[in-house]
Amino acid sequence: MNHDLGLDHKVLAAVERLGRALGSARRHVATRHRLSLLGLSLIETLAEGRARRIGDLAAELDVTQPTVSDAVATLETRGLIARERDPADLRTTLVTLTGTGAEVAAEIAVELQPILGAEAHTAADMATTLRVLLGEIARLQQAGVITVNRSCFSCSHYQPSGARTRPRCLLLDRALRDQDLRVDCPEHQPAPL
Ligand code: SF4
After folding, report:
1. Which CATH architecture has domain 3-120?
2. CB of 138 sitting under 6 A from ligand 1
3. 171 pocket-lining for ligand 1 (C-beta < 6 Å)
4. What is the pLDDT of residues 17-41, one digit of tens each?
5. Of all helices (H) and strands (E), which one includes residue 112?
6. β-strands 174-175, 168-169: how paired?
7. What is the mean pLDDT of the chain?
8. 80 C-beta neighbours (distance < 10 Å), count
């Protein structure tokens, strides 16, 4: 019997089950706020505080630009999202949350907090889980399944651990413990695949 294969399947089954449970919880929260799932994801993404172009949002959320444009227009109508000119390129529009949108984002974060189950795990377990999941995301990006990945493991500034050294961010010039790894880093520079 191939135990490695069996373990692969168990991990896949566990991730799929988690995905279904998270999807169900997110649908409930979206419905409560009269949002589509894409609208919910847009609000969560913009809640990080960094304005985004429509094209960036489309790539990040793995949908087409027209689909994101429609969802942004709906959220704009509700006063949750605003568009502004990109100071670096006046032909480009950036999308941000309005004050009302930020309030809704905060409510959503509170409502989704219980399903994260942070209090059920030690900080060390959570940090290890983060490292393993980011490793899986990097692997799926290499395989062409994920197109956008702005985490440390796909960054040209990331220096893996050596025989006597810890992983480092060369840009920030500091060691990166598991809990320091970034999922969506504004300083990320894609490393060659
Ligand atoms: S720049 Fe950001 S993504 Fe890149 S290694 Fe440093 S912290 Fe990680």
Report:
1. Orthogonal Bundle (1.10)
2. no
3. yes
4. 888 988 999 999 999 999 999 999 9
5. helix 99-116
6. antiparallel
7. 90
8. 24
